[in-house]
Amino acid sequence: MTRAQRGDRAAFEGLAAASIDRLHAVAFSVMGDPHLAEDATQQALINIWRDLPRLREPERFEAWSYRIVVRACYAEARRTPRWLPNYDDGPANEPFAVDGLGRIADRDQLERGFRRLPVDQRAVIVLHHYLDLPLHEVAQALGIPVGTAHSRLHRAMNALRALIAADARPTTLEPAPRVEAR
Amino acid sequence: MNAERDTTPLVRAWLQQRSATRPDPRPLLADVFAQLATTPQRHHRWPGRLLALRIPDLRIAIPTRGFAVLVVALTLGLLGSLVMMQVGSGPAPDANDIGDPPVAAPPPTVSPALPSATPTQTPPAPTATPSDGPIDTTRWVTFSSDRYGFSARHPSGWREVASTVDWTLGPQQDGQGGPPHYPTFDQFLAPGDHPDFNGHAMRLPAGMTKDEWIATYAASMAPYCYPPKDRWEQTVVDGHPGWIAYGECFNYEESIVFAGDQVYVFTVEDTSPPADPRLLKAFLSTVTLDREPASSAPSSSPAPGSVP
To answer: Which residue in chain B is spatially nearest to A180 when comparing CA positions?
Structure first.
């Protein structure tokens, strides 16, 4: 890390190779599109290289890098204001169930609902519910107060539930339980 | 059934399953490594590590030894100047450091009528503190857009990128490579390419009212991010009425201004939320709309920028 901060490209290449998978996972989860995720990941790594000398606390590299990749997602989303994800991971209406919960929404409904969330709300969901970061680390990664992170997550999940509920439609399977839209 | 309790594990499982299908990102590394040689690293602009104690919000320190007192006294004196310069020229140098507070941006308020600027007038000098007052534009340099018939000022050191094609309503075509850029933009980019200010304009299509144009334009933006018109802030740009719209998920603010049969859109974008609304207002205070745009007589040549 120290060598990379001093401009050692070989050292940075090792750091990048060790980081790219988790950064790409965040970018892909936020953007929902492989091409946009690739662009955001590449830009994030370049920004990390550029700003690495300014990282005063190398032990916080991971959280710092999450902030940079989320910012790259913001920028990438701005580049494509009419963004329509072309993400496809299987049949659109395939039921998506979690043991013990029953089928609340199919994968396509989740995808549609999630993509309609603002990028900042998607980011807080991904950092907390995908990376399992506690809220104070989410706040640190996003550069916002903990209270803001908490309220943003709350709003994001409420919005997602509402969007899923609004998107609910009859299927050939047994009726899905209604999701409270709050 | 408790929706919150039930939705959370569903979302968690969905995110995990979804991520498991993503492509291997490692082939991207070659492109990243290829760009390192042309991407200089950025370093601190002042010796923050020399300072013993940190005040979290300011990232400055208090000395404990005699000599350091003198050094820090000088540093603090310079710091005010640096802050002033940074407010005018982009994000603070440590903006990417972990733990930095978000940029303190005053809440959007109804803007007073901004002063009319003409090519011979000097933009108003700010009088308030750098943290909450207007941004000093007195030393900014002028860019003139022949394509769109406006002039605007930007901080010295910002990069000008002139538009290469006329703007038309509808989806915008992204530029190739480099920083975010659309070929219809006349754009100024801060060092590091963020934040940036861009402007473009078009003649109001025949038979289309201003309200119809606004509706058409807003429909071309991502609907979940672009604020409805009832949340726009009224403003005046070079004596012409306009609005400021604050993007609700991307970090941008933009102003729509009608002047005669021309409609102008000026935008400030940044990568870190929230984009400072003072920056757009500072740019707008330097805008003049008094020249005949080349787009009235279509031209394919780039608009030349002029830096005095």
So the answer is: B3
